[in-house]
Amino acid sequence: MKTLIKLERFKFYFWVGSVWLLLWIFNSLISYPKTFVLHSLNEIWRVLYIVVANFLFFEYILTFIRKKRSIILFNILIGILLISIHLLLLSVGLYAWRSIGIQLHIYTSLRQSTLMMDGVYSQIMNEIYYQAQGGFTSIFFFGIAKLFYDNFKLNQTAQQLRLEKQESELNYLKSQTNPHFLFNTLNNIYSLAKDKSDLAPESILQLSKILRFMLYETGAAFINIEQEMKIIDDYIALEKLRYDDSLRINMQYDVKDIKQPIPPLLLIPLVENAFKHGVSESRNKPFLDIHLTANQQQLEFVVINSTEKLIGEGSVKENIGLSNLRRQLELLYKDYNLSIQQGESVFTAILKINLASHV
Fold first, then answer.
1. pTM of the predicted model as reported, rounded to 2 decimal places
2. According to the model, what pLDDT value does residue 51 have?
3. Alpha helical stretches, state H, the chain
4. Are 314 and 238 a contacting pair, CB within 8 Å?
C-alpha cells in the first residue's frame, strides 16, 4: 500500500515537471528561436533529473528531517546537512547530469560560445551557476505545487470523511425510524386482533404491502415521489381500519412530476405523528388534512390534524419520529424548513424543501 501511495505521488511530480518543462520550452522559443529545438531537447533531459531530485527531497528527505528526535539540535544539524546536499544535487549534480547527456549525445552544449574563455575552471563554474538557477528555482516551483496539492487532497479527504459520517448517521436514523414505524403499525393490528375484528386480515394485508416497500424500495438513496405518495396512501388505509366513520380524512396532491426523486420514507413520519399523537387522542370529530405540492423542485407538505387541548402548553415536545426527521433533513438538504405548531385543538406540521438543495 505504501509503495502504491508513493507511486501515485510520483505521478504528481511528473505532471508538475511537465508544466515546468513547458514553461522552459516556451522561454526557449522566445529567447532562442533559432536553436529552439536543441534547447527543448536539453530541457527534456534536464527535467528528468529535476523531477526525481525534487520527488526524493519533498517525499523522503523532508520527512526524515521533520522526524521527531530527543535532541532538537540533532534535527537542525541533520536538516542543514541534507538541505545542503540537495542544493548541491541541483547545481553540481545538474552539471554532472548535463555532462552525461553530452556524452550520450542527448544534450547539446549551447553556452560555450558565449562564455569568456578564462579557462576550463571558469567555464565549469559558470555552467554550474547557470544550472543552479534552474535547479534552485524548481525547489520553489515544486514546493508551491506540492503545498496546493496537499491542501486539495486534505480538503478532499475531509469532505469524504464528512460524507461517510453523514451516510452512517443517516443509516442509523433510518434504522431507528423504520422499526419505530413498524412498531406503531403492529400495535394497530394488535388492537384489531384483540377486539377480534373482521378487519384484522385486511390490516395484515396492508402491512405486507408496507413491509414489501420497506424491504425492496427504501434501500436506495432516492425513490420517485409517486412511490412515497403510494406508501402514504397504504399507511392511511391501514390506520383507517381502526376508526369509524367519524374520522374525516382529506388528501390533496398537486405534483406535476410524479417521477421526481426524494429520499424514501421522508414524509411519512409526519403522517404517523398525526395519527399517533393527534387523531388517536381526539375524542370529538377527529380529522386529518394532508396537502402535498411539488412543482419545479419546490416541495411543500402540510399535515393538519385534530388534537386535544394541552394543559400548561409550552413548546412542542418532539417524539423520536419528528426528531429523526429533523436530523435527516439537516443531513440531506441545505434549503428546508420544518415548522410545528400546537394549537388549542389543532396540530399543524409544515415541511418545505428545495429539492435542488440536496447535499
1. 0.55
2. 92
3. 2-31, 36-56, 62-65, 72-89, 92-103, 120-194, 200-216, 225-240, 268-276, 320-332
4. no
| Residue 330 one-letter amino acid | E
* DSSP-derived 3-state class of residue 350: strand
Query: Scanning the structure block, which residue is given the C-alpha cell 565549469?
Result: 124
Q: Do 276 and 188 meet the contact criterion of CB atoms below 8 Å apart?
A: no
Task: Specify whether the CB–CB gap between 29 and 166 falls below 8 A.
Answer: no
Q: What gap in Å lies between CA 20 and CA 24, rounded to an integer?
A: 6
Contacts 24+ apart (CB under 8 A), 211-216: 211/182, 214/178, 214/182, 214/265
Taking CA atoms, 117 is separated from 95, 96, 112, 121, 130, in Å, by: 18, 21, 9, 10, 16
Cα–Cα distances in angstroms (integers) from residue 337 to residues 125, 167, 315, 350, 353, in the given order:
72, 21, 17, 8, 7
Q: Are 13 and 142 in contact (CB under 8 A)?
A: yes
pLDDT at 311: 47
CA dist., res. 337 & res. 5, Å (int): 44
Query: What single letter denotes the amino acid at residue 50?
Result: I
In 3D space, the residue among 174, 291, 192, 173 whose CA is nearest the CA of residue 232 turns out to be 291
> What is the pLDDT at residue 256?
87
Beta bridge partners of 306: 346
The stretches in the chain having pLDDT less than 70 are 1-5, 111-120, 161-185, 188, 192, 195-200, 216-218, 309-319
Residue-wise pLDDT for 297-318, tens only, equals 899 999 999 887 654 444 556 6
How much is the pLDDT for 142?
A: 92
Residue matched to cell numbers 388534512? 289
Please say whether the beta carbons of 46 and 97 come within 8 A. Answer: yes
Exposure string of 198-208, with b = 16+ CB inside 10 Å and e = fewer, is ebbeebeebbe
What pLDDT score does 8 carry?
A: 81
Task: Output the DSSP codes for 248-275.
Answer: EEEEEEEES-TT-EE-TTSSHHHHHHHH
Phi, then psi, of 165 in degrees rounded to 5 = -65, -40
